[in-house]
Amino acid sequence: MKICTSTIFSSKTRTVADALIQVINHDLAAYQPLTVRQCYYQLVGRQIIPNNLSQYSKVSRVLVQLREEGLVPWAAIEDRTRRTTDKRGVSSVTDWLDIEARALFNPGNYGRCLVQGQTVHVEITTEKDALAAILEDVVYPYCVRLNVVRGQVSATMVEQIARRFDQAIMDNKRPVLIHFGDLDPSGVAIPKALQRNLADRHGIDAEVLRAALNPDQVDLFALPGSPDAVKSQDPNHGAWLREYGPAQSAVELDALHPKDLQDILRAALNGVFDMEDFAAQKQREIHDRELIKEIRRYALACVGRRYGNEVPFAADYAGGQI
């Protein structure tokens, strides 16, 4: 790989380019697409580059070159701040019917709520939009919501969370909020503000657990600090000093390896849920899917017998091929 990059980059930049190829194509290949920020903090954590804005810009530029040269796939890096809408329409009614028939009573689309029997109602919050996809891969199987609150939690989002918590309380469930954020003055203040706003504005007494990032995790995973992130003019600076002291360096949640981040979230969820009840619900879901398969076979067979001569592929339904 170094032979390839040596023809493109200078000696100083080549080290960064080779490290990015290793991170994207190998170490974090299972977590693609990645953000520029994630790639940057992987290099900071490996002490390949210092943690500053100029190095972040350098990583961004090198990533463009690596993709242009085909050394890193374009699809490996995602820009989550921009989006493209889908186009309307299919080529024919036959294509549309085929798509709809394959989706009809598809047992793979059925998902039972696996936490309906729990005594807690759990929601996840994070300030990091760039890490939402990594967290969402974990929360989805647990049937809980992920709320991306960004830097400042909006009153609208707090009200929506409070409404769901209020319903949970009426259902005799204890509301629990599990938070993931940066270890810096603002990041530490966010879950406290959430808890305070839920109580003061909506009368909701919710348990708030800060799952990450915490000082013990910084030590455990040897995460790089962001010294410029602690600013004396930050309104949360005083509370930060009282809680953590002047020696504590600020650390970005992005510095965690995606696997470690997901493991922390799983451990937090396993800690608040009754996993025996969770497993029982999973077995019921398997039973439900078998029933759906039976209904699907019957429904498509009826379609095939009635319309097999008019829509060519519908004949497959009668024979149970779909």
Can you walk me through this structure?
The radius of gyration is 25 Å and the shape is flat. It folds into two domains: 2-76; 119-273, 3-Layer(aba) Sandwich (Dna Topoisomerase Vi A Subunit, Chain: A, domain 2), CATH 3.40.1360. The protein has 322 residues and is an alpha/beta fold. The protein is built from 13 helices and four strands. A four-stranded parallel β-sheet has the order 2-1-3-4, with helices on both faces. The longest helix is centred in the last third of the chain and has 33 residues, at 275-307. Strand 1 (120-126), helix 6 and strand 2 (145-148) form a beta-alpha-beta unit. It has helices at 2-6, 11-27, 36-45, 53-68, 93-103, 132-139, 155-170, 185-202, 215-221, 237-244, 258-272, 275-307, 315-318; strands at 120-126, 145-148, 174-180, 207-212.
